[in-house]
Amino acid sequence: MSLTPSSMLDLGTKIPYFNLVNTIDNSFHDVNSIEGEKGTLIVFICNHCPYVIHIIDKMIEISKDYNKKGIKSVFISSNNIETHPQDGPIEMKKYAAEKDLSIPYLYDESQETALKFKAACTPDFYLFDSNQKLVYRGRFDDARPGNEKPITGSELRIALENLLNDKPPLENQMPSLGCNIKWKKGNEPKYL
Questions:
Q1: Residue 86 exposed, middle or buried by CB count within 10 Å (0-12, 13-18, 19+)
Q2: How confident is the model at residue 2 (pLDDT cuts 50, 70, 90)?
Q3: How many helices (H) and strands (E) does the chain have?
Q4: Per CATH, is 3-180 categorized as 3.40.190.150?
Q5: pTM
Q6: Of 38, 113, 126, 180, which sees the most CB atoms within 10 A?
Q7: Contact by Cβ (8 Å): 189, 112
Q8: Rounded-to-integer distance, Cα 130 and Cα 59, Å
Q9: Domain boundaries, the chain
C-alpha cells in the first residue's frame, strides 16, 4: 500500500465522458444517466483499500442523503484486477450486496475513466454542479485508519451544502489520501 494524495483536477473542469458497466446489475451508465438535478458526486474506490473501508459506511450514508436532495452519487473502481483480483467485477458485486449498495458501482476495466479524471487514489472525490463543472475535489474529512478522529465526512458535506445553496466552492480544498490506484503496466499516468 502506497499512501497517495489526489491529483486535484482543476476546478471548473467539465465532467469527463464515460460509459461503464454497473457491477450490481450489469447495466451501463454514462455521464448523462448518472447526472443529478443539482449535481453529481463521483468517487473512485475499491473493495480492499483500508482508507475506503474505514469510511465506506459514512460515504454510503451521505450519498443516500444527498441523492434525496438532487445530488446523485456513483462509485467507480479502476484497479488492475490482474494484480488485485479482489477488486474485480464479481467481487465488486458481492461487496455491493454486503453493503446493501443502491448507488451504481461501476467498473473501469480499461482505466481510461480514471485517467480522464486524473484519479490517483482510493478514495478520490469529485463533485460536479448541475452544469457538469467541477466544484470540489478533495478529502472526505481528516479521519484515517488508526488516527482515532471521528468519521464525519465534514469537508465533503460542506462542499455538498455549498452546491445545494448556490455558495461558491470551498477555497481551501485538501487532497484526499489513500491507496494508489493499481495501474496496468503502461497505464501509469504522467500526472503523478
A1: middle
A2: low
A3: 5, 10
A4: no
A5: 0.96
A6: 126
A7: no
A8: 21
A9: 3-180
